[in-house]
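Protocol step 6 of 9: fold each sequence in the batch and record its structure tokens directly after the sequence line. For illustration, a two-sequence batch is reproduced in full.

Sequence one:
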Amino acid sequence: MKSTRVTALALFLATILILNTASAQLLKIPEVSRDKVICFSLYTVQNNIMKLTAQLYPLKPGEDRNVRLEIRQQGKWKQIAETQVVEKGWTAHFRVERWDSTKDVEYRVLHGKNAYYSGTIRRDPLDKDVIIVAVFTGNSIYPGHGGDIPKIDIVENIKKLNPDLLFFSGDQVYDHNKHYAYWLKFGRDFGEIIRNTPTVTIPDDHDVGQANLWGHGGRLSHVRAGHDGGYAAPLEYVKEVERAQTSHLPDPFDPTPIERGIGVYYTTLTIGRISFAIIEDRKFKAGPASVLPDMGWRPNRPDHVSVPGYDPKALDVPEARLLGQRQLRFLSQWAADWQDCDMKAVLSQTAFAGGAHLHGSRDNRLLVDLDSNGWPQTGRNKALAEIRKAFALMICGDQHLGTIIHHGINDWNDSGYSLCVPSIANLYLRWWAPLEPGKNREPGMPEYTGEFLDGLGNKLTMLAVANPEPEENHDKLTTRAAGFGVVKFNKKTRAITMECWPRNVDISDSNTKQYPGWPRTIQQTDNYSRKAVAYLPTIEVQGMRNPVVQVIDESNGEIVYTLRINGTSWNPKVFKIEEYTIKIGRRGTGEMKTLTGVRPLAVGESKKISVKF
């Protein structure tokens, strides 16, 4: 049996190498004309550093490998950078420091004498009250499942929406063998919006040639399904994918490569004073077949549990990890740093819960899906505990199913909210279909909403679901619950509005309806909804508006949470009867005051502390 698997894997790897080399021909890309050398570009700006990746079509032998970057100044084009093409994947990478983020800048990428690709690098929208993010996942390319339908409806809606950030959470390329060819198609489909808008693209399992991904720190997986942990595709293939999709992101928090020299990209991006933590929730995650004992269920799918009687706690073994210590340390530092932001969000591949019951068909009920970020439970809880300290919304995809979940660790709703968006085109259907009604449902809400335990014993409150319709028809988009998400951050009111739109609609039409349960608006502080044990005295600040307030538990030195408050008054909640340190002001400047030995108030007690700047 083992030799058969090895032979099959060797054949798969060889196939990838062959198909990747010939991918342009397999897609029947036409002969490249001089004005079509450059397919598309992606960019971000962070800390006055502009990074841009230009994606080229294959260059012919003997053609120039040099690519230039120009910007328009006072009506004239000026070259500001040049670089050499990376032939494995045909990308050109630019990094320009001392970038002026206060104004829109026209740019163009040039090759040779005549070929160029142009767009606009937007100014940082600091003056906007509402920052808009458009969110996508699951770009199926298969005919019959929406992959053969043009993306014009999405592009036209996004142009009307005019978002400040685009986030593609994974599976931009769904074919396991031809990333380069279908990556070009992705760029042609969405080029009209990504050329002019900051864009985050993070690769997921299908992008790197696997049905599922447990990166296990970068090691080699010996099965194509990847459930033993690691990457099954050739190392250069994985690097090519990540280079194409993530090189334009801000510099990594810690660039140290993982096993076999695979890079990392987890980092921070700030747009209009909204700080986004971009994480890699699959790169360090342990493979279930490597860390779990044989429990006798579906040996060909050790990531699926469908037999009743299992013990969820037995799945939470010490060897299993989710984000890993590196990313947890990153989230901890990010949650405490509010120097240039008013609100925060986490961008990840998938949600920290088991958010679906039926997989693939309505008669395939799974009790546990170890591909979700609900497993391992300890790792999931550690991640949520760090994220809620930032009062951060979680934004993700991958589940093929749009949901809004309020997460809980020790109790329901003691952590933050997540928006998981539906697939752009839905190849593999999933449904949220609990067997019992949810508890503590909101008035008038369906029975599938409310408080539940997922198959791993994680606490979640389901608030909205975009389930596929039970009856099939010939509409490949609406039946399959395809679409995209939108998040609107209101810095003035600190409200967060989540939207979920179907395909083939006009979002500017007042008669167009979103999926049931959307839109939904929460407050920033709802993302740390843990019930208070007590409150500290009310902090009243004079001489400064919207200061940062950080609460530290003096018994262990741990940061309880950090928040840029809205206004000049804050009543800090705490979760233990201890003494606390409170830091108030603007971190990184001399305008910071520290209060120590602050004790919680007794029940019915009222007290204020005035802090002057």
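Sequence two, same batch, same settings:
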Amino acid sequence: MPPTFRYRYVDIGTVFIGDARMRDPHGGDQSPATLFANELACDVGGSCWGPNQPLSILDHHQVRAPQFPSASAAVLHKSALIREKFSQMDGLVWLVTNNEPEFDALCSLYLARWVIQDPRATGFEGHGLNPDGWTGKPGLLEFNWLQPDLHRIPAEHHWALRLASYASMVEMRRHIPCGRARQLRSILYAALKRGRDYLTESSGASEFFDEVRANLEQKQINPMFDSVLEGSALFALELAMLDREQQAYASDLERARKALVFLPEAEAPTPDFFEHPKKAAQPADTRKLNAQQLLLADSFRILTDGIYLLDPQCALFQEWARADVENSALGAGFEFTAIAHSNQRPAAPNTSEYEFYIDPQRANGRHLHTVWSRLETEEVAALRARKGAATAAVSGVRGSASASASESVGTVLAEPWTGGQSGSSTRVKTPHRGTFIAPAGMRCDLRDDPVVEAVRTELEAPVYSVSSLAAGPQITVYDFAASEKARNAEPRRFDLINPLAIPSPEAGCFRFASVGLRPDVPIVERGRAGQRLARQIGENLWHCLHPDGRGAAPQDFERHLVTEADKIGVWSERGIVVAHKASASAIPDDAEAGEREDFAALVSLVREIDWLAAELETLPPLPAARKALSGRKDKAGELEPFLSEAEDLATRALEIQHTLALPQRELLRRFCEVIGFEQIVARLNGVKQALAEHLRRQQADEEARRREKHATATAALLRELRWFQLFVIGFIGLELLGMIARNMNLQPDVQEMLVWVGNPLVLAIGAWLLQPWRARRGSEQTGPALQWIVLPALLVWLAAWIAQMLRLR
């Protein structure tokens, strides 16, 4: 009489203990972790049936070599052992798997049932299926599960080998050419989503696999390439559903944030992502390493893909994301998923419901206990703040703060976040009452959500170096004034695990910020993983420049990202943020000191050029400047300090331009481009030229004034000399006419007329010839000495003329 089959499901991570009795058909109070003689466990249990494991357990997740590629493959490898134990068993046979079964788990149960029932399910050892394991190096004596060759294998075994091969490809996260919406696993998940009772005690998804087997046998198709259930009337609704879900999933991928996360592992993986301190701290290098570089090396973290999304539109988003080898950076699917469903807790301060998952089939010791602890800490802090504010508002009494704190802790302990405190700790979900960590975010990628930010920083912050585990990674921020209206701010430090608390740069300032990277972070790895990690770190740094964007990055973000062997940096019109790997021979602050000094020198130059240009604008235009400065002494000296300052700034600008030409100054070069440094230098040259022109014009004006003054004085002297010449001519005329009158025999009337008329006539002719009154008319007056000499000379001439007239009479 053939056996009857029943199915049961146990927690992932269950460790079975054996019992030689038969399991009661009604279950009773028998322990789920007890594996009876009539039970076969597949894809659960953490061990494999063999020489060192007498229990009937077929699990491929444990670390062993050689290993099976899937539980389905393990069933066929162990088919002889399974038939030997269970095929002749009368009564009830229980098939056991985990309570979150994937395709491979249910497929392995179906294949095990076939092996037990069908006498033709024998001879697999002859096909190269070694019952001791699969090496992954197929040859003539080993079956290739990734590229199965069925030419020499009986036709009645083809469907089982193809089905197990497909399950192995799924488990090993290999690319499957058949479209996502037509793969067998997708149709199975759609059937489960639609409510088919495949996880009951009597089902085990047998209906689904019966249909699959029939199609594989009748049509001779391959599930890795073909849509096995295409046209199936039994699953027409699931196929129609998947057609709709395909587009929804593509939309979800566009909206989601894809990242690399570092999941803690309960036991040290081999090899681990971060080097163990015993490997890092060799005796010769011990004194070169800082304690901060070793603090996180003790907590083993595994690099894997994660994805964050608000309100997925695709019903199969999590299932498809876990197997999405095309879009995940490491090519193994998104092992960690963070999903928020908005407006699911309307009575709570935060109305969203959160689900954080690790793929339980791949966890292998990885857990979310640290995430759970972080959320519980945030919950206590939020409750204390909420109740403290309420107490202060009602009574204003500080004495009730301790009572509120006690009540807060009690509330959290009474109803904590679920899942994180469990043994496997692969899921963390919102408490039933909701969460007080408010408010919920609005962005699709959840970068503005405080709950998800706590989780994100917990899983992504291990790339940064820390001075202590209690403080966590710190980013140092410098705001340098770029104009005279602003002032340099004192350096400040902020927690990277609380990025929403970082303020925007001060008005009129450029920001330089720095944080240390652990020396073993692979920031220059090639491929999608290296690019995604570099972008992920860069997006965190970008938030320090643009905290008002709440984690949003520009569409051309790659243009703002600079990755070098020892650092990652971002730049924008607001400044520069850089993450340096800590050097083995220097303290972390020294790693970016030179770059910070160069940045400060650049900003200082910009500020002083701005000041100098403002000072130049206060000067009057050149024609007005002449008039404004005409009455001042040392006019050129007023502009010489400005010109000297401009020359000094020009020298500093040349030094900065030289610095920009050096290697590893790409960040500074990009920043200079975005702020228009060349235009600023051109402005400086313009200011310098304008100052030089002002100074040259002022010097020319002063020289012209000196020449004009000299010419005026010369003209005045010449005018006085002409007056003297005129009086000299007058005296000579007096003397000549007197001699003529005395020595020549002229009539008295003629002599008198000669003296009376001749002397004024001679003086008039001299005045007509010299014209002293026309020399530099309107010029400055002569000196007092010359003025007093001219007047007596005139009086003397008049006296001499009158005396001469009197002598003649």
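Proceed to step 7 once all outputs are recorded. Observation for sequence two: The first helix runs from residue 71 to 77.
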